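Tutorial, part two.
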Amino acid sequence: MEEPSSKRPRNSLNREEVSIIHDGNHNNNQIVTLYNPPSSNNPNANTIIRTSSLASPTMKLSGHKGSIYTLAYDPPGETLCSGSFDSTCLLWNASGNCNNFNILSGHKNAILDCKFTNNGEKVITASADYNLGVYDVRTGERLKRFIGHEGIVNAVGVAKDASPCLAVSASDDRTCRMWDTRVRSEVGCLEDQFQVTAVAYSNDGLTVFSGGIDNCIHAWDVRQMKRTMTMKGHTGKTLLCNNDDVVKIASMSAANLINLSC
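Running the prediction step on this input gives:
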């Protein structure tokens, strides 16, 4: 199984700063490092009082057997999920000693994206095996496998303020597909002309934003199932599509540019 060369970690993490490193002293394990950086506004770093809940300023979380492509916090910031080329996601406590308390398995290829539902009870994964998985955070059990894409699933998105049962995925098969964890099959399909590499819901779940190799961000009306807007500006394929506000969307492209659309 060859490692996809164009895949990448995509999540914007606003709790502790997170980086991914490879340490040859850890038997080729891939390591997630949690780091609480000192304030750049304080010239005397030695006098800084740490308020982090981590057991030490830098924590190395070792366990994956392949490159780590994606990271996600649950809504309260208490749990971290890491997705890897080794086809698994690991769940970690995001405080104290950052213990690994669950392994999410079942995919047959790399995990390229993962998201917690907005109630923090489930993790939804996107994989290069063309499928998505829905996992119970508490037990680690896979509750559902969403089948329907005909290409690599690059990204998954959930709505911040809508039903925790809703998710949307983006794929190399040139579609975004909408899912409901209460049913087995997709509940909607948005067809594009190009491979879709990034996707996000609006906070209210009524709009889907997608980005792909056409260098554009597209807005789709979920109720009418049609494209309502196209935003141009990138010079490379879109790798990240993150909606943290109802009227603003941030995107990043392979040309190393970050655009903010309003």
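The radius of gyration is 18 Å. In part three we will examine how such features are distributed along the chain.
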